[in-house]
């Protein structure tokens, strides 16, 4: 007999093994005698021909195999039992979900002391995080188990199938263990905060699935249950009328398309994970796996798709440990990269993700400052996870460039930047609201994400807050609410966007991370103002923009609303800041304020057939004029922050381990503080 292994190309190389068979074995030569008696005789003859040593070895091997067989049979029984139990768990009905104990996704390493070169920026004295009255957080640190999609092949009766399943389970457990055993998203200094030319080499793993020191799950409370209920109501509308589309139109029971990428579904993934909505999550995951396609001839906005899609996929990857989400994140990340091919390296606002082309809006070659400076957390994290430096390099370059630009006013930036010249345009107008807001937010958050080492970011942040204090802070009448106005060519305007209400949360986060204690004082004053933007309005919901009264007038409140500004888009900023304030102070009033807001959303924006809608008139409780649109950030941000605000578990997205992007998607801090 001869065995042949052919070579793939070139003249075939032949390897031969020759085996000489005895006459009895030469099948076909003398006919095929397979009688039982013949076989028995033949075996016995062979056995007798063996030496004593050979016979002993064979007997020993038989005995050994028999013992192994008995042992594995016993342990298989145990494993089978546990599979069957898990399978029962999986069969829990939807109705039972609210009773599920919450699981905690956090798993990063214990906070370490940061070693920032603080001396480089002498005006900044980093303080110890203030010892604030802390939130009571009961037995904390539970874990959310990775969705058990691989564990569904359960209840079978035949033993062979059971064995197959055990093999399957073993594989899954091994994969899970390799995730679990990883101790955090720590990045070495040379991989994280150095200039982009320093290569990021090793791809990183997800931040979590379970923690090492598993603690008792913290039960969810009534208010959190109300958030879950609200989420499910919103999700029902989306599922029934807009599944796989960008946004739900709950009144017309249809949908609107922006990028055609299932925006609401992706934005909501990590919220479902955090809320423990396993079945909804699984269903959405399937859509991502089977239907989410980025190879489409469609123009997307770089900023919006980064914060919602890339951010959402990355955080879901971290929470679930499911590589599907990282694969999708890589795909969209790569497709967004053409935006950076501009003369100045300041990215264009729009990218065609199918064609790989990018362009500014039709009427200008400017980009919005907040947009080009609020994509960094996501692209930096993508580099860290993939080991591919190009993402981080592109966005770091933008920050470095903006750092050096003139045209700022005590750290405050204009709203536009030109993609050809790289210079600010429309100089002289300064706001913490639309078009500039998240520039400030991302200065602080990148500094925290990178382990508090990138001093230019901190420097720009601290200067900007000083700029806010100097130019934009005022007090209203009659309640003397501290608010952040705007400056236009030297003229102060008492106008404040609801968007500015991210600021108290950001200030509090900075103070928690050792920045000036007066930032916390300012945060406390501003969150009161943001709350009053709700409380002083007829529906108890804030309008998009308010104007504060600077002079006391009889019968006038602090807050004035212009007809064009009285809509509410279900925005998250105030609830977001309430969440930070509660986490850092433990003052229950913040939870109570959030609870009022949730009730008012339910009262005025909830659509009975499913979903919530933005409204046109917050001043008219009898007809708030529904606009027929549920923005994706209502599920991505507003309800998530509500749920976290009502939680007393500081380990439910621990703020020393995670940093939220501007769309409320938590990403790991590389070197926890
Ligand atoms: C979200 O997309 C983000 O929070 C962004 O930073 C601002 N606008 C909306 C929410 O209001």
TrEMBL record:
Positions with biased composition (Polar residues): 190-200
Gene Ontology CC terms: endoplasmic reticulum membrane
Recorded topology in the membrane: Single-pass type II membrane protein
Domain of life according to the entry: Eukaryota
Catalytic activity, as annotated: N(4)-(alpha-D-Man-(1->2)-alpha-D-Man-(1->2)-alpha-D-Man-(1->3)-[alpha-D-Man-(1->3)-[alpha-D-Man-(1->2)-alpha-D-Man-(1->6)]-alpha-D-Man-(1->6)]-beta-D-Man-(1->4)-beta-D-GlcNAc-(1->4)-beta-D-GlcNAc)-L-asparaginyl-[protein] (N-glucan mannose isomer 8A1,2,3B1,3) + 3 H2O = N(4)-(alpha-D-Man-(1->3)-[alpha-D-Man-(1->3)-[alpha-D-Man-(1->6)]-alpha-D-Man-(1->6)]-beta-D-Man-(1->4)-beta-D-GlcNAc-(1->4)-beta-D-GlcNAc)-L-asparaginyl-[protein] (N-glucan mannose isomer 5A1,2) + 3 beta-D-mannose; N(4)-(alpha-D-Man-(1->2)-alpha-D-Man-(1->2)-alpha-D-Man-(1->3)-[alpha-D-Man-(1->2)-alpha-D-Man-(1->3)-[alpha-D-Man-(1->2)-alpha-D-Man-(1->6)]-alpha-D-Man-(1->6)]-beta-D-Man-(1->4)-beta-D-GlcNAc-(1->4)-beta-D-GlcNAc)-L-asparaginyl-[protein] (N-glucan mannose isomer 9A1,2,3B1,2,3) + 4 H2O = N(4)-(alpha-D-Man-(1->3)-[alpha-D-Man-(1->3)-[alpha-D-Man-(1->6)]-alpha-D-Man-(1->6)]-beta-D-Man-(1->4)-beta-D-GlcNAc-(1->4)-beta-D-GlcNAc)-L-asparaginyl-[protein] (N-glucan mannose isomer 5A1,2) + 4 beta-D-mannose
Active-site residues, Swiss-Prot/TrEMBL: 304 (proton donor), 437, 544 (proton donor), 573
SUPFAM superfamilies cross-referenced by the UniProt entry: Seven-hairpin glycosidases
Pfam families membership: Glyco_hydro_47
Alphabetic keyword roster: Calcium, Disulfide bond, Endoplasmic reticulum, Glycosidase, Hydrolase, Membrane, Metal-binding, Signal-anchor, Transmembrane, Transmembrane helix
Pathway in which this enzyme or protein is active: Protein modification; protein glycosylation
Disordered: annotated span: 183-217
Compositionally biased spans, kind Basic and acidic residues: 201-216
Cofactor: Ca(2+)
Protein's name according to its UniProt entry: alpha-1,2-Mannosidase
Lineage, opening ranks: Eukaryota, Metazoa, Chordata, Craniata, Vertebrata
Gene designation: Man1b1
């Amino acid at each position: 007999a001869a065995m042949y292994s052919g070579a793939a190309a070139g003249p075939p190389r032949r390897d031969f093994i020759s085996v000489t068979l005895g006459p009895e074995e030469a099948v076909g030569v003398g006919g095929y005698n397979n009688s039982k008696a013949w076989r028995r005789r033949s075996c016995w003859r062979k056995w007798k021909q063996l030496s004593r040593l050979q016979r002993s070895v064979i007997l020993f091997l038989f005995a050994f195999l028999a013992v192994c067989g008995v042992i594995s049979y016993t342990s298989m029984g145990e494993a089978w039992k546990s599979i069957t139990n898990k399978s029962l768990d999986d069969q829990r009905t939807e109705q039972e979900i609210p009773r599920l104990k919450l699981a905690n996704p956090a798993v990063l390493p214990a906070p370490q002391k940061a070693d920032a070169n603080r001396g480089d920026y002498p005006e900044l004295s980093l303080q110890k995080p203030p010892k604030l009255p802390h939130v009571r957080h009961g037995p904390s640190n539970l874990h959310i188990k990775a969705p058990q999609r691989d564990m569904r092949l359960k209840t079978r009766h035949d033993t062979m199938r059971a064995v197959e399943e055990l093999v399957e389970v073993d594989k899954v457990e091994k994969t899970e263990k390799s995730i679990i055993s990883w101790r955090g998203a720590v990045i070495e200094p040379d991989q994280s905060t150095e200039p982009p030319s320093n290569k990021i080499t090793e791809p990183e793993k997800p931040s979590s699935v379970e923690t090492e020191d598993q603690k008792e799950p913290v039960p969810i409370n009534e208010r959190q249950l109300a958030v879950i209920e609200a989420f499910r109501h919103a999700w029902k509308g989306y599922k029934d009328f807009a599944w796989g589309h960008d946004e739900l139109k709950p009144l017309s029971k249809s949908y609107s398309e922006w990028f055609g990428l299932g925006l609401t579904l992706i934005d909501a993934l990590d919220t479902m994970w955090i809320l423990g909505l396993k079945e909804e999550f699984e269903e959405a995951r399937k859509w991502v796996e089977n239907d989410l396609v980025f190879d489409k001839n469609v123009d997307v906005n770089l900023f919006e798709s980064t914060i919602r899609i890339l951010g959402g996929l990355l955080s879901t990857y971290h929470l679930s440990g499911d590589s599907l989400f990282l694969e999708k994140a890589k795909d969209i990340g790569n497709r967004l990269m053409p935006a950076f091919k501009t003369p100045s390296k300041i990215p264009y606002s729009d990218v065609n993700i199918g064609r790989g082309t990018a362009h500014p809006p039709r009427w200008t070659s400017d980009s919005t400052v907040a947009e080009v400076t609020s994509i960094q957390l996501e692209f930096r994290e993508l580099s860290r996870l993939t080991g591919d430096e190009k993402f981080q390099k592109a966005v770091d370059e933008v920050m470095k460039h903006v750092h050096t630009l003139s045209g700022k006013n005590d750290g405050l930036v204009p709203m536009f930047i030109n993609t050809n010249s790289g210079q600010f345009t429309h100089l002289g107008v300064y706001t913490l609201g639309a078009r500039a807001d998240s520039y400030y937010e991302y200065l602080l958050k990148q500094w925290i994400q990178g382990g508090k080492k990138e001093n230019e970011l901190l420097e720009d942040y601290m200067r900007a807050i000083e700029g806010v204090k100097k130019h934009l802070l005022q007090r209203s009448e009659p309640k003397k609410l501290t608010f952040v106005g705007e400056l236009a060519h030297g003229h102060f305007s008492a106008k404040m966007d609801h968007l500015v209400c991210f600021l108290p949360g950001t200030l509090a986060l900075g103070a928690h991370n050792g920045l000036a204690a007066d930032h916390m004082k300012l945060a406390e004053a501003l969150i009161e103002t943001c709350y009053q933007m709700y409380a002083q309005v007829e529906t108890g919901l804030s309008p998009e923009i308010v104007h504060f009264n600077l002079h006391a007038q009889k019968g006038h409140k602090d807050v004035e609303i212009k007809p064009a500004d009285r809509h509410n888009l279900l925005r998250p900023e105030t609830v977001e800041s309430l969440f930070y304030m509660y986490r850092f102070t433990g003052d229950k009033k913040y939870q109570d304020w959030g609870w009022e807001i949730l009730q008012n959303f339910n009262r005025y924006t909830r659509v009975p057939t499913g979903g919530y809608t933005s409204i046109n008139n917050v001043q008219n409780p009898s007809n708030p004029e529904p606009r027929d649109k549920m923005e994706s950030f209502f599920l991505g941000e507003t309800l998530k922050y509500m749920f976290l605000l009502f939680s007393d578990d500081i380990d439910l997205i621990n703020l020393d381990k995670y940093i939220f992007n501007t769309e409320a998607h938590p990403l790991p801090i590389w070197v926890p503080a």
